[in-house]
Amino acid sequence: MEDAISLHQQALELHPAGHPKRSFSLLSLANCIQSRYESQTLQNDPYVALPQISTTILSAPSPLIDNLVWDTLHSIPTRLVQTNTGILLTQDEMVAQFQASTQYHNLVTLLENINDWHSIINHIQENIVTYFKYAILSHRWGHNEPLLQDILLNGSVYDMPPTDGLIKLQKFCDTAAHHGYSWAWSDTCCIDKTNSVELHKAIGSMFLWYQQAALTIVYLADIPSSSLTFSGSAWFTRGWTLQELLAPHTILFYTQEWSLYMGSTAQNHKKDSSILNELAQAAGIPPQHLRGFNAGMDNARSKLQWAVGRHTTVLEDIAYSLFGIFNLHLPVLYGEGEEKAIGRLLQEILSQSHDTSILQW
Asked: Which one, out of 106, 151, 252, 348, has a CA that is 20 to 30 A from the CA of 305?
């Protein structure tokens, strides 16, 4: 079955978006994915409710809908975990799932009676965006984090031997599902870190992915639910978590036991005034920038100062983790060293902002 899926994925590479045979290839891939699901021994897992893809709802391909789907997927991660099955899917596999869904069938049926093209396209776009909404994880890496190859080898995050990292991933997916999201993304398992091209693309897209997420779930592994403050969390000292704080529109903080911080029932902790004020103090960032952050060159020196005192495991990442904050797309050159990486960053900021005060950050 894996060979069949691989062959269909190769066929998709020969049929890019807009190709007349792409829809047929995606539907064929959907059948293969369903067969793979049925071969998995997940039915007895309490976390999993397998989707049933019935051939009776495989609608006639719609180039209009397909093009709108790919427009939506352009700005979201290339892989996501399906929260009810725990299976990691590529975008092609996600589209195949969508084409085999009742939602797709209903949209195709809707096209049969078109009175107002403008409203119908808006309606289709809204349905597509809703279908592909995803939650994203922000956390500090720990021990035994499951990587992409581990997930692919085992088939589902719910069907793997438990480790600290795996339990965290399961809890994250379960929490995302609880909030109504079918898709979830974690930097541990949704990037092929053995592929340098994919890794570099992910680094360049990371800010956008957090910005586009319907919900960012922050897991503070070192803050127990009984704690009265989260300001001492190591999460506030890491380089990558700065953009993971600034980029999202909606964010929720979870404690060590996976309970909401301070028991807050707010739908967005950036709109909970008490949590927002504590967050601003802990991060050293004014509340207005947390509520509505604008990536780019304005307040360049302040943005650099927000990164002071933060650290990254890989030295160059202290510069690369700021690319999105300044809306920069620079080459990722691991091995160049921290000094050169920061030098390239400052040079580009200076050339675009003409703000010489950044040299004193």
From this structure: 252
Q: Which two tokens stand for residue 61?
A: 């391909």
pLDDT digits (tens, 9 = 90+) for 21-42: 555 565 565 556 556 545 654 4
Element (H, E) at 347: helix 338-353
Residue 208 neighbours by CB under 8 Å, 6+ apart: 75, 247, 324
Residues making up the chain, counted from first to last: 361
Task: Judge contact between 257 and 222, C-beta under 8 A.
Answer: no
Helix 63-73 vs helix 117-131: angle between axes, to the nearest 10 degrees? 50
Query: Residue 238 has what DSSP assignment?
Result: B
Whether the CB-CB separation of 141 and 186 falls below 8 Å is answered with no
Question: Do the Cβ atoms of 305 and 325 come closer than 8 Å?
Answer: no
Taking the C-alpha atoms of residue 335 and residue 340, their distance in angstroms, rounded to an integer, is: 10
pLDDT in the model for residue 7: 78
DSSP state of 260: B
For the ranges 2-6, 120-124, 207-211, the maximum mean pLDDT occurs at 207-211
Number of H helices, E strands in the chain: 15, 6
